[in-house]
């Protein structure tokens, strides 16, 4: 039985992870040695440029253990209108810890959020950590009559790359339809008594692009600022109809800015002094500051998930 995967976390892969991902791929691939399923003299590694592209599209995830070192990965794409798992690997020493299931669930959650009807993949039918593993996780084997033209092209490519195609199957897991249909967009709105200061702080200081503004609309002025890469945006409004809200120590805007250097660059150009966070976790992973209204912003120097 798979053990609890508590010591591990899933995050998006970064370009700097690529050498480690290749190492994971090579070491996981060595488990096929002697099985007679792959022609050893041919290179079956995932193409480097394709990997770089999919990392940029936020479609590659890694399983990490402390300190933030990838020990497993999954690469996803979109083929024939559905999510597709190009490759999933876990270092053998970390096998049977539940990492494969965690990575698989991540792709399924992503596929559902994107509005895809299913996740499909190509794998070896009888290797225990291939076909039987996916069957246990809700995948079914597709009959050749169900293959798409794209799947037939994949099978031909696998043959050219030295995989024993007669031992391989295509599998598919249906995804529950997201009730929002993949059309959800998020706006987080807050009233302020210092609209100009707030705009300077978030637009000019933090660097959030301004995407819209309005004035005198039913007694409201407002500015909308994009949260890049999220599909969400912030709206700050000013009005005399009601008083602005009061901040609470646990009202947080957490911004995952990618790396520590970006945190330091933002702190250098913002007129702020870091403060202790009410929750000590945020002091471990980031820096907490006040915005002009006294609401707390946490700058975290990494990506999430």
Quickly describe the structure.
27% of the residues lie in helices and 30% in strands. It has 305 residues and is α+β, with helices and mostly antiparallel strands.
Give a structural overview.
The protein is elongated. The chain has 305 residues and is α+β, with helices and mostly antiparallel strands. 27% of the residues lie in helices and 30% in strands. It has helices at 18-29, 48-56, 99-113, 131-136, 149-160, 195-206, 260-269, 280-285, and strands at 8-12, 60-65, 69-79, 82-90, 118-124, 140-141, 168-174, 186-191, 210-217, 220-227, 232-239, 252-256, 286-290, 296-300. It has 3 domains: 8-174, Aminopeptidase; 192-238, no CATH class; 246-305, 2,3-Dihydroxybiphenyl 1,2-Dioxygenase, domain 1, CATH 3.10.180. It contains 8 helices and 14 strands.
The span between the termini is 26 Å
Per DSSP, the total helix count is 8
| Overall body shape | elongated
Please write the CATH class name of the largest domain: Alpha Beta
Rg computed from alpha carbons, rounded to a whole number of angstroms: 24 Å
What is the CATH superfamily of the largest domain?
Gcn5-related N-acetyltransferase (GNAT)
Per DSSP, what share of the residues sits in E-state strands of 2 or more residues? Answer: 25-35%
Biggest sheet descriptor: 7 strands, mixed
* CATH fold-type name of the largest domain: Aminopeptidase
CATH architecture of the largest domain: 3-Layer(aba) Sandwich
Strand order of the largest sheet: 1-2-3-4-5-7-6
Order of helices and strands: EHHEEEHEHEHEEHEEEEHHEE
Give the helix level as a range of percent: 25-40%
Q: State the domain count.
A: 3
Judged by helices, strands and strand pairing, the structural class is: alpha+beta
Poorly predicted segments: none
